[in-house]
């Protein structure tokens, strides 16, 4: 009946408006049941459960065998890690898989059969689930003793498919690949030509004394390629040319040419290409988000305008205010926006809204949330008013910064004085006393500020929250210290009184003071700019970081599988080392004992350790060298070269491109900002680009709406 | 009289037009004698002598004591370098100084007294000359035994002041300094906060086994600062965290935070800032060049229009064609441009030129030199025409590339097969035979191409010149080899027949073939783009390279003076090493024996060696470490940190900024270019920006002309 139809239209409008708010696509089923399912699927609880499931399945690697989640990383000292019994992690995994099965079925149902076949991500999701479940069954049938677990490498896919931002970013990266591939090809040509050249230049001669270069670096084709590839990472930079250079200085020309061409030109060209491709990336992504929002609102307008209560006589389609109010009350949205829209609806005199008016109402969504700080309390007493003026003045804040600086300097002085003293000679009286004094000052400052501004206003500034929290923590730690060690007096040495963990806390107090110093940053103009750029960047970088996590995880798991059993405790490696050819080890590798490499690379699944690795091409080189000599693992070289290319070359360049993009936008806008600097914006990427964005035209919106696979518009 | 006046005007016009062609400033004296002096000073001979003098005085460092220009760089084997007798280098120096004195006096005279006081570069030049001459006198009075020679550090200034491009670039860099300083300050704050944090975190404990981290890296404030500064260069990346990491994995969070913030964010922010500042740099510099050109031409017009023969009745000032022809004949300019201007002058019907017409005539100067290849010979015989078609066809060129590739592959195969053979087992027959075959093919290819295209057309393509030259060299080397060793036969081993240097030449032949392979580059679109970008970049980078040479030279000379006497032959250093504290050397420094560091850094004045150093922060770190332990030179740390900042951080970022600028311009223009790709342009920076440049207005030009310090215009 008409009532049921009307209910359906209202529900559709609610969902479309929620889609608009969340920048979601509106191409989903729109019948009553599907709408209910859709709202349930995108409810906070459901999405939270999904995120939790993804986190759990990714975190499983930390407790699964072979896990290395122990306190020490030293293979000699560490205790065997806890091995969960067979079936424990597997049953958690099964639970996760079940959640994913529900996820994929709901998603597939909601977008409809036709769209499903076009959606490669969903197909890949189903495929991944099938492979994972098969692998899981195989695993259980071997009682967890099987050596290869494919499903582990596939896990990061679950993270990837759940984020539309990451999928979009991946698409952008994908479109950059042809150009990147060209430069990588150029690098390969460069490398191979120079390798041939090197092999001809540093050939074996009759005189064995003379061909050191040949013996160590250019013995055969793979050796030469590796030497030059590592030179490209600058890890073996002077080493590789030293034997030739000692023979004749002119040989250095070869290495310098190689480095200048490869490192300075080709590598930086990669940066240029990636930056060039990503120049419009942020803008484009924000533009498409805007389109989705406008489309959702327009769709809501269209369905509301087909409500039966609307007078059919009107030429133009329009929406009654009553229907809109009904929709607004049921839609989930920011309460500030909702109130603002309600307010302007009430101020509107007519009771019908045209499409333009409707769209205009929802522009409130795009607006900055201007944060208004609560007012200061108004004191009656003259004395209190004076106090309020004094301690609410910016100069009081500056005084606080000066005191924080003085505190830092005094800690520094104590550190320098105590540097070479034995722990037994050290007197902690001075450090204890200044800590006590400064913490008292910080406490006083906090209380006076609260007095002047009122608690609510004080807490409305993030810098004050940061300050206050640290002050409270400092106070608690200090009181705890005094309770255990008594007040500081000459010869006060807390660490010799047993409870070492609390003395560690005293050190922690000082570290917190170092952090407290950071509050001066907003007071310095350029620093504030830099810091806000960095914070913005972090926001925009989430998708990239997600992709990085995916890559790291896959590499880590592959590494664990490839290098399983390669860990030899230190004693054994030493023997291994001595028995191997001496010449290879006299190079730069001796300093990197195999142990260290092993500690860092083999059997480590701690993602953090992998991350630090990425800055250190040297270790990779050394490992390559060790591995190529020992020929333990044939694939190690390819593995590490791929790792270097992806993590060090491509990702770092992507990062630089994004940073350039962000910084240049920010910088251009700096002047406009300055005038508004006293109003705090909750900045989003959308706002940064607002004056450059193009509004979609009505024709574009309507064309898109008519292409909707499930919504049949009357007109 | 009027005749003399007319002559003066003609001469002025000639000089102004020459100024316009060379993009020189026209603010110089304009009386007859000064004009003669000016033309003499800017004549090719004079400028060539000046350049030669600068080269000579800079090159002096290579033969002066302490010189290290020996074949080997190994201090153990190298013979004492030739020490020129006292007075030899000094007299060459004096000659150079005299040339510079003449240079500075002519320059000062030509710009006039008033302008001289405003010109800081000239004042600095004079000051440098006075200091150098004083130092020279002191040097001679000590019979060359004095230890400090200030004038050596000042030498690169002579290079700097002679290039207007370098002065302009320096000004740009100078204007970027405030922003760079802010980031460097931020880096310093970052570094010092983390240093304090580290000292509190890795404090000395009672248990000596546990505080390895403290002993090795954070013993005191300078030590901690150095450790973290070196971490910023990523040179000691995993080393510095390994002791703490073995104790507890959580310590790695500290190092990762430090690296991510410092290396990934702050360092790349420096790139962003420098790129942002340099975004308009190329455009601005080209724009100001254009202004100088238009100003020079306008000035020529103004002086010519005041010639007495011009009818005074004319309202507008104008120039007679006869006078212009007279000027053109005497002015030194590109013959192609001169002919083109003459031609359009003759085509002009009127005999008076207005300012706009005059300016338009000289636009020929801005135009691309479209290179027209001479026509192919026209053969009568039908057979020859067919031959011409076949061998002039691009497919014949592709065949040549395929053959070159086959040659490369065959050399590669021989190299791989011979890699592990003893020189005595090796059979060079195969390599000799393929060399012989391929060189014959190359010769045939060259001859057939010449037949098809005619010698002139063949030589007009740079790729053919490259090809032909290599083919001729290959042929000569091959003939020489056969003359000495006979034709290749199984068991052919040229190296065992005495004349080793010729066998080296056979290897050289193969290297040349590797180079010949490069001719395929223009056939691949993307590669061609990349290569032309790089070539353009090299052109635009000359000024930067000049400044780099200046900095390198100054650093090298300072290094020589600072570290004089620090070279201890290997035996001694070993003793030094053993007697020093062992703990410091167990780190990553052992692999870099002091010898190597010494070889690379101390007493080296070979600029090339310095250059390679810049890629290797590790060596710097090691040296810092060695020096800080031994406390031999207090200033070494500051010296190397400055070196790292300037050469590695700032210069590399400048380079990236320029590359980005160039590449993005080029990329945007790629589509327009493609249509014209068959016409070869002689590309200049000016042409790249032509469609973006703004023409200066008449008012701007006239205002500038009226500000001319020496030229009094009649109207």
Automatic annotation (TrEMBL), chains A, B:
Keywords: Calcium, Calcium channel, Calcium transport, Endosome, Glycoprotein, Ion channel, Ion transport, Lysosome, Membrane, Repeat, Transmembrane, Transmembrane helix, Transport, Voltage-gated channel. Residues 53-278, 398-663 form the Ion transport domain. GO terms for molecular function: calcium channel activity; intracellularly phosphatidylinositol-3,5-bisphosphate-gated monatomic cation channel activity; ligand-gated sodium channel activity; voltage-gated channel activity. The keyword Cytoplasm does not apply. Belongs to the calcium channel alpha-1 subunit (TC 1.A.1.11) family. Two pore calcium channel subfamily. Its main location: membrane. This is Two pore channel protein 2. It is a multi-pass membrane protein. It holds the Pfam family Ion_trans. The keyword Repeat applies. It is found in: Late endosome membrane; Lysosome membrane. The lineage of its organism: Eukaryota, Metazoa, Chordata, Craniata, Vertebrata. GO terms for biological process: calcium-mediated signaling; endocytosis involved in viral entry into host cell. The chain crosses the membrane at residues 45-63, 92-110, 122-143, 180-202, 253-275, 395-417, 429-448, 469-488, 508-531, 543-563, 638-660. One of its GO terms (cellular component) is lysosomal membrane. It catalyses: Na(+)(in) = Na(+)(out); Ca(2+)(in) = Ca(2+)(out).
